[in-house]
Amino acid sequence: MVATPGPVQRPEGLAEVEEEPPKTPEPKRVYEAGTQVSCKASFDGQNHPAEVVDRRRVGRTDTAGADDGGAYLYYVHYLEYNKRLDEWVEHGRLSPITSPAELKKCDSLRSPSVLSPRHDAGPGQLERKVTRNLKRRYDEIHHTAPAVEDLTPAERTLEKEHEEKTKVKNIQMIELGKYELDTWYYSPFPDEYASAFKLFFCEYCLKYMHSKKTLVKHMHKCQARKPPGREIYASTRPPSVRHKNPVCFHEIDGAKDKRYCQSLCLLSKLFLDHKTCYYDVEHFWFYVLTERDVQGHHIVGYFSKEKNSQEGFNLACILTLPSYQRKGYGKLLIAFSYELSKLEGKVGTPERPLSDLGLVSYRSYWTRVLLGLLRDYKGSLSIKDLSTLTAIRTEDIVQTLQTLNLVKYYKGQHILNVTQRAVEEHLKVHKLSRDVAIDSSRITWKPHAAPNSSSKKK
Question: What is annotated as the active site (predicted)?
Answer without folding.
Answer: 351
